[in-house]
């Protein structure tokens, strides 16, 4: 009996042990759940806060395209802008009234304008859903079409492309609003006797990439864009030469350092748009040896597209494109893109030393933000390609990095632009509490009701008062290497904004609005 009682007590004791374990486990689990939930909520809140910041910045950046528009404005969203350049192209019996002014003056340069369209297309194709989430896809597509309409009209026949409206030398003698321009608006073109492979190929890239953007919503327009893109690429490849050699006077403003990168860039976009492996062979066979072999990484900009082509072509490798399967040339582009990413990562053994003390990529004192913003855009694209294709490791020498490292780098460059810098200033006009007020921009600096001729307007250039009109969304030139910034209208090196830099910034900010995967094929949009 005693044994039975002992046995019974042991059983009861064990029962209570089980009950206690269950209760304690439930309490512990509840505590774990509450703590984990708080951590997740905190992380979610932090992520949401970041995404809100980039969303707000994107909405502002997108407005600069409206600031820069030429022509008869439709649904004008900028109160101090009006119709301008309505007779542009008339001397050639063409309508070149649309398009965008490149910067703070009143000239339309085709080379950087086409690059603006290509990058804006790329941003929409990769991150259109992000844009749509915050109602920015339609404005982006409208701005893109404003440029591509101009580019189509500027290409009246297969071997003719009009590349400039206005004379920058004469334009710079005046300080006047585009709505009140008094200077003549001469045209420049490239053709078979005055070739411009760089500008023609960049325009081909712009139209090919845009054809993908509009493929589902306007198939007729998309087909027209692609038709012109093919013609322009053929023209650029057949009649080789730099447009700044055909027109040396333009070199002061937008000098082209070569056309090989544009040919590769255009062929890459045409492959994405058509699936025609002829374009793939173009970039991987003989022309790869001619134009893609360089020592070390290059910097993505309106002049040099090679880094962009490397990342765009690496997309084919990441996502197993059928046409690129077994093509060792595509692998070479990916290796070059890997090298670029390793150069950008600050903790990589091959990290570039071309940075400020705060970590901003810094290459040149003129328009210094173009390179960090461009580098960040490529980095976040590469990060997303890696994530979406389950390629989680980037090897840089003996060190390994993850997609999150590239995204962190991209965010650091974006954050610097948005105010996380030694000057505590946002270089995006209209964003934050402190941003440049003396932007080098004719339209923004002259009061709406002012009457000025060519030279009378210079009093507004030298005025000590802030601009009466805010150039919303303008990305100014940026800081010097020592991270100083002088907010002066006469300091065009640092305070002049450009449309093409805004396109790259829109791409960067769009990528950071969300963390969803990109589409596996650009033809899916």
Automatic annotation (TrEMBL):
Pfam families: Glyco_hydro_9
Catalytic residue positions: 440
Domain Glycoside hydrolase family: from-to ranges: 54-509
Residue spans crossing the bilayer: 14-35
MF terms in GO: cellulase activity
E.C. designation(s): 3.2.1.4
GO biological process terms held by the UniProt record: cellulose catabolic process
Reaction catalysed by this enzyme: Endohydrolysis of (1->4)-beta-D-glucosidic linkages in cellulose, lichenin and cereal beta-D-glucans
UniProt xrefs under Gene3D superfamilies: 1.50.10.10
Protein keywords: Carbohydrate metabolism, Cellulose degradation, Glycosidase, Hydrolase, Membrane, Polysaccharide degradation, Transmembrane, Transmembrane helix
Enzyme class, first EC level, given as a word: hydrolase
Family: Belongs to the glycosyl hydrolase 9 (cellulase E) family.
Record's protein name: Endoglucanase
Higher taxonomy: Eukaryota, Viridiplantae, Streptophyta, Embryophyta, Tracheophyta
């Amino acid at each position: 009996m005693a044994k039975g009682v002992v046995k019974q007590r042991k059983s009861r004791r064990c029962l209570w042990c089980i009950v206690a374990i269950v209760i304690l486990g439930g309490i512990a689990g509840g505590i774990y759940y509450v703590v984990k939930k708080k951590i997740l909520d905190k992380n979610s809140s932090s992520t949401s806060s970041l995404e809100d910041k980039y969303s707000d910045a994107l909405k502002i950046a997108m407005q600069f395209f409206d600031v820069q528009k030429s022509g008869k404005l439709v649904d004008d969203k900028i109160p101090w802008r009006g119709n301008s350049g309505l007779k542009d192209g008339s001397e050639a019996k063409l309508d070149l009234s649309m398009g965008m002014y490149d910067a703070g003056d009143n000239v339309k340069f085709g080379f950087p304008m086409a690059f603006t369209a290509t990058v804006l297309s790329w941003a929409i194709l990769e991150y259109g859903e992000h844009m749509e989430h915050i109602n920015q896809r339609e404005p982006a597509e409208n701005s893109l079409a404003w440029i591509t309409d101009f580019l189509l009209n500027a290409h009246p026949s297969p071997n003719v492309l009009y590349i400039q409206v206005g004379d920058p030398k004469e334009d710079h003698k005046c300080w006047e609003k585009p709505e009140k321009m008094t200077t003549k608006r001469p045209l420049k073109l490239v053709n078979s006797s005055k070739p411009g492979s760089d500008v023609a190929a960049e325009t081909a890239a712009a139209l090919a990439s845009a054809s993908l953007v509009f493929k589902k919503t306007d198939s007729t327009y998309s087909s027209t864009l692609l038709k012109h893109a093919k013609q322009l690429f053929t023209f650029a490849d057949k009649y080789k030469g730099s447009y700044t050699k055909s027109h040396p006077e333009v070199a002061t403003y937008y000098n082209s350092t070569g056309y090989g990168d544009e040919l590769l860039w255009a062929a890459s976009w045409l492959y994405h748009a058509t699936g025609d492996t002829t374009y793939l062979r173009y970039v991987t066979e003989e022309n790869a040896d001619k134009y893609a072999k360089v020592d070390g990484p290059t910097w993505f900009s309106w002049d040099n597209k090679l880094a962009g082509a490397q990342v765009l072509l690496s997309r084919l490798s990441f996502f197993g494109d059928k046409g690129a399967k077994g093509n060792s040339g595509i692998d070479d582009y990916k290796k070059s893109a890997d090298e670029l990413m390793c150069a950008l990562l600050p903790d990589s053994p091959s990290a570039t030393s071309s940075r400020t003390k705060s970590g901003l990529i810094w290459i040149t004192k003129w328009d210094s933000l173009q390179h960090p913003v461009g580098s960040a855009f490529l980095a976040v694209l590469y990060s997303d390609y890696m994530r979406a294709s389950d390629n989680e490791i980037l090897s840089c020498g003996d060190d390994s990095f993850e997609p999150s490292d590239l995204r962190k780098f991209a965010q650091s460059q974006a954050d610097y632009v948005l105010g996380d810098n030694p000057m505590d200033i946002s270089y995006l006009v209209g964003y934050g509490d402190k941003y440049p007020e003396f932007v080098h921009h004719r339209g923004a600096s002259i009061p709406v009701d002012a009457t000025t001729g060519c030279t009378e307007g210079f009093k507004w250039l030298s005025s000590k008062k802030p601009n009466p009109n805010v150039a919303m969304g303008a990305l100014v030139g940026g800081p010097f290497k020592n991270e100083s910034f002088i907010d002066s209208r006469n300091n065009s090196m640092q305070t002049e904004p450009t449309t093409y830099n805004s396109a790259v910034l829109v791409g960067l900010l769009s990528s950071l609005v969300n963390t969803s995967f990109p589409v596996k094929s650009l033809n899916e949009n």
